[in-house]
Write a structure and sequence with these properties.
DNA polymerase, domain 1; elongated; two-stranded antiparallel ribbon; alpha/beta; 3 domains
Length: 191
């Protein structure tokens, strides 16, 4: 490159810089389609510099928390972050009965069980409150429409073989759990 005049060297460097920016923006756009990020670019008279912007998650936190409600949390947050955002568990809550380390998904509901419920409704608790998959017993699962003893046992074996389940949707991998059963599980269970 030493044979090139000064003007041509700067032009080559400019082209290389622009090419690198295009590659970075392309990669960010492709990743943004999969993980909820957007690519925003800003121009201030110089080269365009990509900036990846991550969209927050919206989650519903209910049960035994200080301030039940719908909250936004940063992408990559965990169940414990949502519970803390809702003011933490109340004295009658059992946050240890759910997987607090599970990653949150957009639109997920987090329900902190009420002490003494054992996965079942108690006086003063909503009768349609989801059962925690992390603590559900065979009897808890069999109370769900469409779940018999065999499917309940398969769900427990699936959960225990993986050290827990981070999403109810993971249960569709179990033999005998079809689309109709999945609808019942989504409304009756939480991770």
């Amino acid at each position: 490159m030493s044979d090139l005049p000064e003007f041509d060297r700067s032009r080559v460097l400019t082209y290389l810089l622009v090419g690198a920016v295009v590659v970075v923006v392309g990669i960010a756009v492709l990743r943004g389609q999969d993980d909820g990020t957007e690519v925003a670019s800003s121009s201030s008279g110089g080269p365009v510099v990509p900036k990846v912007v991550s969209r927050p998650l919206t989650v519903d936190v209910s049960g035994a928390v200080a301030r039940p409600g719908v909250y936004t949390v940063p992408r990559g947050s965990r169940v414990i972050d949502a519970i803390e955002r809702a003011g933490g568990a109340t004295g009658n809550g059992l946050p240890g009965a759910i997987n607090r380390a599970a990653l949150l998904a957009d639109g997920q509901q987090v329900v902190v069980p009420i002490r003494g419920s054992g996965g079942s409704p108690v006086a003063g608790a909503a009768s349609d409150a989801p059962v925690s998959l992390g603590t559900a017993t065979q009897a808890d699962l069999e109370r769900i429409d469409g779940i018999g003893p065999v499917t309940a046992q398969r769900i427990l074996e699936f959960r225990d073989s993986r050290g827990g389940v981070s999403s109810v949707d993971d249960l569709d991998r179990i033999s005998g759990v079809g689309p109709v059963t999945m609808e019942s599980l989504r409304s009756a269970l939480q991770p």
